[in-house]
Amino acid sequence: MSSNMRTIAPLGRFDPVHPVTPYAHYPFRDEQSIVSPYDYPQSSARRWARSAKKTAENISSLLQELRAARLAALGLVRASSSAWEDRIAVSSNMSAISGSAVRGAARQRCDIMVSRLASSQINKGYTLLKTGRSVVGEGVHRFIISTAGAEAELFVTIKAGDQNGRLIGKLANAINGAELGVTALILEDRNEQTLQLELKSDLSGSAAAFSMVDSGDGKSIAATGIGRIGQVAEDALYQIDNGDWLTSGTNSAVIGNGKVTLFFHETTPNPVTLIVKTNAGSVANQLRSVVVKVNRLTAVIESMSDHLNPLLKNGLLQVMNSAAAQRTGMKQQPSGEWKVDRTSLEKAFEDEADRTKLDLTGPDGWAMSLARMLERFEQMPAQAMINPAAVEAGHFTLYKSSMRSYWQMPVSGWIMNSRW
After folding, report:
1. pLDDT at position 33 over 80
2. What is the side-by-side order of every strand in the sheet holding 151-158?
3. Of 19, 122, 288, 352, which is least surrounded by CB within 10 A?
4. Three-state secondary-structure class, residue 194
């Protein structure tokens, strides 16, 4: 046999009874049926409910921004994604020699001399009157073009009454149609009414040389003079760091294990210095992207400063105000946002590139310190993120990491007591 005894005891004559709300209910749901029939004012509870709900939503946003900022910081460190692997080649005389470097190329400095540029072969025929009678007689005229990789016998057919204009046009069409790496151009002087046939190898260098001769009874090459060489196909001749003279079939050369390309524009009476270095612009852009994530995180922290454990804000400020951050151009604006001063960053590159890299991406550098700090807060129990001094915190911390809400026992008002 069981006994049932219920009592209602006043805690204070003018103290209100705190209502039960969806965001803060007493752990035993059956007790709600005992209290809910009484229609008590709920304005204060609703205010608490809205505040508590906002805190939970802000914690969710905070976790998202923590992760985004941490991954951005790690991206600056990892070789596969770090802009520190981007390279740029800078020449002391860009009009004579320029260069490019692919990602991951070794940083280096070299002195380059160019004594000869690579050239294509150019043949120029005689200047002929356009409307004059063809310098080649009637009939089929065969000729042979020879290149390093091919040889072909071509022909043109000249008819009675053909003029030089028709002759030159037929020769150009036959040569271009053969696709042997030689291009025929017709140079016309409209004032003088003259034409000249020009042949040019498509590529430069000695390997692109070609020859033309008449075949059999053909006379088109000799009559037009197109077999005459006006410019010889030659290789570029260059030297690096006073080493042996080297040749290239093009006006370019590859060095640095295939990761750096030199481009020759002019011969150089004096050595030209080429420096392959980290692309400060790429690093600045990636650093800015990390700082943008930090600014978004800072905004979330500020929006919930009344509810958030101040350790996070203090930890973030400590990393952002570190000597390494200041030395590499990170500055806080009056608005509270952080920005990267590119001038300061580039100066750090010029003065001490290795130290700058260590300051930002070393094991104890700025990026790793930021990533470790953010990861530590990501892994904190949820209740540890909430400021213990916040009034709403108690409703979330009694059940610890579960974040289940809890309706605290009022210290004033009416209390329902049941005993079975």
Report:
1. no
2. 151-158, 139-147, 210-215
3. 352
4. strand
**Structure tokens belonging to residue 287:** 């650093």
Structure tokens, 229: 């060489």
What does DSSP say about strands 108-116 and 236-240: parallel, antiparallel, or unpaired? antiparallel
Closest CA to 282 of 78, 12, 88, 3: 88
CB atoms within 10 A of CB 235: 20
Tell me the C-alpha distance between 200 and 265, whole Å: 20
The three-state secondary structure class of 280 is: helix
Cα 317–Cα 319–Cα 324 angle in degrees, nearest 5:
130
Q: What is the mean pLDDT of residues 368-375?
A: 93
Judged by DSSP in three states, 155 sits in strand
Q: Using alpha carbons only, give the angle 250, 251, 254 rounded to the nearest 5 degrees.
A: 85
| Residue carrying the six token digits 């005229």 | 141
Q: Which of 219, 224, 94 has its CA nearest to residue 166? A: 224
Q: Cα 28 to the chain's mean position, in Å?
A: 57
How far is CA 237 from each of CA 116, 128, 203, 251, 396, rounded to the nearest angstrom? 5, 37, 16, 9, 77
Q: Is 114 helix (H, G, I), strand (E, B) or coil?
A: strand
Rg for the chain (alpha carbons), in Å?
A: 42
What is the average pLDDT value for the chain, to the nearest integer?
83
User: What is the pTM assigned to this prediction?
Assistant: 0.70
Phi, psi of 98, rounded to the nearest 5 degrees? -125, 175
Closest CA to 86 of 102, 99, 100, 71: 102
What pLDDT, on the 0 to 100 scale, is given for residue 348?
A: 86
User: Does residue 64 sit in helix, strand or coil?
Assistant: helix
Distance from the first to the final alpha carbon of the chain: 10
Q: Helix crossing, 43-77 with 353-361: angle to 10°?
A: 140
Is the Cα dihedral 97, 102, 103, 106 positive or negative?
negative
Per DSSP, the residues of 91-114 read ES-TTTEEEEE-TTPPPEEEEEEE
pLDDT number for residue 235: 97
Give the range among 142-146, 268-272, 280-284, 304-308 with minimum mean pLDDT: 304-308
